[in-house]
């Protein structure tokens, strides 16, 4: 048996045991719904309140703020729209540059492009898979200058307006050093918390450290509204502006259509919010189940030198959205074969995203040295992580 086969055999056996699935396909991550989901959705249908206003939208925003501890939450059509709005709230303008990891889902960079700004890719650390404040600090020291509290790229002359950090697979990135970096370089911090609802850094919910945090409720995320997203913030005026920007810039009025800016139709429909209300009720049970699954992977695969399972960073609580297996450097060459054979064996897994600076539309974008990103991209495999709540 070569090493690929041995690794695959161990992962198949371990995963089937942890996921309590002796036969058949084990999906990567599928949604689970508690007892109120169908009733809430049905209420939208029977009352006719299925579209962009309704009591479930208001309730979902209130419940989301309560769960995360945010002063305000504003629900939107999806996490990508939430990122687009978050960047607008931070004053990103055409021609600006926005720093973001290359190791993230493509939406993070696309939101920058929607603002006619330039994504500028930065490095991550292997401990958290999140942005590496020290490496970015050294890099900005070389290429940027700070004047009147604003950061300029000396090579391009463009303003570097924002830094987006992303809490990969629910593991919080090193917020303390990132906040210091943002302070020193005059950068707004946006947290892409699409994957990290229920994840905490030093007891505070992710997404609330920067100016704005964004969440996603896509079907594969920890909780889902079908499609959906939100921003969370402790700044009332930003939340009000977010609502306005996502509601076609319409001035509230019983019957007049008066709009005071070119804005978006990014509202979350009531139908989706109804599902979201039930999912927030289920969230504590989902998080508990996810911790058990992660603990299972970590202990089952503890004594082995071929790969490790990513554990939550120190002083953090991860929601363990998707468990991540990291092949040892020696086994990186087996990455594709292991993924292919696991899928053939019914253990549905996937590699981490292709680093964004290697995609055709972003291959000419500015970037720092991305050695850690490339190394990790060739070693990470996401394992089945569907919670059980019933
Ligand atoms: C899912 C995700 C998004 C986008 O969310 P959608 O709701 O699918 O638009 C953005 N960033 C990251 C890191 C994600 O995982």
3D structure, described in words:
The chain has two domains: 3-34 and 282-353, no CATH class; 37-281, Aspartate Aminotransferase, domain 2 (3-Layer(aba) Sandwich). The chain contains eleven helices and 16 strands. The chain has helices spanning 3-18, 37-47, 55-68, 79-89, 106-114, 133-143, 175-185, 236-246, 270-300, 335-344, 371-377; strands at 72-76, 97-101, 118-122, 144-147, 150-153, 159-166, 188-192, 200-201, 204-205, 212-216, 229-233, 307-309, 316-317, 323-327, 350-351, 380-383. Strands 1, 2, 3, 4, 5, 6, 7, 10 and 11 form a nine-stranded mixed β-sheet that branches. The two termini are 39 Å apart. The model has no long low-confidence stretch (mean pLDDT 97). The site of pyridoxal-5'-phosphate (PLP) has 14 residues, from helix 4 and helix 5.
Can I get a quick summary?
The protein has about 400 residues and is of the alpha+beta class. It contains eleven helices and 16 strands.
- Looking at the overall shape, the CATH architecture of the largest domain is 3-Layer(aba) Sandwich
- Main pleated sheet: 9 strands, mixed
- The proportion of residues forming helix, as a percent range, comes to 25-40%
Beta-strand segment tally: 16
Return the domain count: 2
Order of helices and strands: HHHEHEHEHEEEHEEEEEHHEEEHEHE
Query: Could you tell me which ligands this complex binds, including any ions or cofactors?
Result: pyridoxal-5'-phosphate
Report the structural category.
alpha+beta
How many helical stretches? 11
Specify the CATH class of the largest domain: Alpha Beta
- Overall, the morphology is globular
Low confidence ranges = none
What is Rg?
21 Å
Q: What number is the mean pLDDT?
A: 97
């Amino acid at each position: 048996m070569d090493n690929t086969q041995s690794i695959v055999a161990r992962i198949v056996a371990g995963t089937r045991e942890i996921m309590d699935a002796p036969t058949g396909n084990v999906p990567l991550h599928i949604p689970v719904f508690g007892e109120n989901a169908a009733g809430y959705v049905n209420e939208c249908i029977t009352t006719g309140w299925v579209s962009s206003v309704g009591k479930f939208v208001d309730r979902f925003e209130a419940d989301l703020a309560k769960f995360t501890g945010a002063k305000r939450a504003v629900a939107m059509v999806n996490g990508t729209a939430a990122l687009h709005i978050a960047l607008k709230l931070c004053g990103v303008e055409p021609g600006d540059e926005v720093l973001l990891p290359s190791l993230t889902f493509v939406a993070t960079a696309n939101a920058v492009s929607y603002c006619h700004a330039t994504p500028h890719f930065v490095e991550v650390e292997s401990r958290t898979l999140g942005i590496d404040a020290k490496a970015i600090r050294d890099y900005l020291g070389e290429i940027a200058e700070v004047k009147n509290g604003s950061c300029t790229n000396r090579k391009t002359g463009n303003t570097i307006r924002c830094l987006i950090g992303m809490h990969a697979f629910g593991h919080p990135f090193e917020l303390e050093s990132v906040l210091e970096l943002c302070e020193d370089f005059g950068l707004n911090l946006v947290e892409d918390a699409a994957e990290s609802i229920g994840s905490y850094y030093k007891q505070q919910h992710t997404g609330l450290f920067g100016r704005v945090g964004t969440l996603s409720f896509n079907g594969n995320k920890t909780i889902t509204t079908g499609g959906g997203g939100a921003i969370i913030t402790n700044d009332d005026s930003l939340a009000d502006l977010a609502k306005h920007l996502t509601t076609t810039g319409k001035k509230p009025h019983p019957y007049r259509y008066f709009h005071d800016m070119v804005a978006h139709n990014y509202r979350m429909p009531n139908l989706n919010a109804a599902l979201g209300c039930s999912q927030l009720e289920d969230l504590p049970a989902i998080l508990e189940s996810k911790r058990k699954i992660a603990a299972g992977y970590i202990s089952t695969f503890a004594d082995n030198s071929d790969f490790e399972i990513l554990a939550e960073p120190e002083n953090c609580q991860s929601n363990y959205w998707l468990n991540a297996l990291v092949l040892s450097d020696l086994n990186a060459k087996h990455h594709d074969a292991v993924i292919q054979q696991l899928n053939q064996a019914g253990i549905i897994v996937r590699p981490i995203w292709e680093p964004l600076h290697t995609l055709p539309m972003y291959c000419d974008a500015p970037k720092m040295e991305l050695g850690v990103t490339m190394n990790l991209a060739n070693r990470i495999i996401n394992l089945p992580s569907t919670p059980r709540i019933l």
